[in-house]
Automatic annotation (TrEMBL):
Entry similarity comment: Belongs to the sulfotransferase 6 family.
Keyword Glycoprotein assigned: yes
Protein name: Heparan-sulfate 6-O-sulfotransferase
Enzyme class: transferase
Annotated compartments: Membrane
GO MF terms, alphabetically ordered: heparan sulfate 6-sulfotransferase activity
Annotated Pfam families: Sulfotransfer_2 (PF03567)
Domain of life: Eukaryota
Length: 177
């Protein structure tokens, strides 16, 4: 009888370990396990979804949260004319984790222009020349590559872009900046 109870106990322990392994495989993070435990608790229905992980109350609730921007309505509604045939240049500053890769691809692939960028299948970099000229109107990783380094910030771009753009033009054709 004792031998049979040991086998049942061993089978239950093995079943428990198997269940834990499967759970870790299906839901590897601790967040998933915590959500399951919270869902079983009676306080889960009344829990504050804006409560911080360390259980301190959130500073702002949706009713009191007021977004603040450093832009005036005039700044947001202003119109900027871009002359693709002239010397205007768009410099795309890619800020990581803000959708910049998608937006950068959109600039070279989807914008309807007099002469859109030419993108060849299998290549990440597209050619964005001005109509009738062999110079680019867009400075981004999808048009000029990593000319100023990987994830160049504002300071790096303001120091690098003029020299890169000017190096590709003859001295007499360089625009005044």
């Amino acid at each position: 009888m004792e031998d049979r109870s040991h086998k049942v106990l061993l089978a239950l322990v093995m079943l428990f370990l198997f269940a834990v392994i499967v759970l870790q495989y299906v839901c590897p993070g601790t967040e998933c396990q915590l959500l399951r435990l919270r869902a079983l608790s009676p306080a889960a229905a009344a829990a504050d979804p804006y409560r911080a992980e360390d259980e301190t109350p959130a500073r702002f609730t949706p009713a009191r949260f007021v977004p603040r921007f450093n832009f005036s309505a005039d700044d947001l509604l202003r119109r900027v004319d871009f002359n693709i045939k002239g010397d205007d240049l768009i410099v795309f500053l890619h800020i990581q984790k803000t959708g910049g890769t998608t937006f950068g691809r959109h600039l070279v692939r989807n914008i309807q222009l007099e002469q859109p960028c030419e993108c060849r299948a299998g290549q990440k970099k597209c050619t964005c020349h001005r109509p009738g000229k062999r110079e680019t109107w867009l400075f981004s990783r999808f048009s000029t590559g990593w000319s100023c380094g990987l994830h160049a910030d504002w300071t790096e771009l303001t120091n690098c872009v003029p020299s890169v753009v000017d190096s590709k033009k003859e001295v007499r054709l360089r625009p005044s900046r």
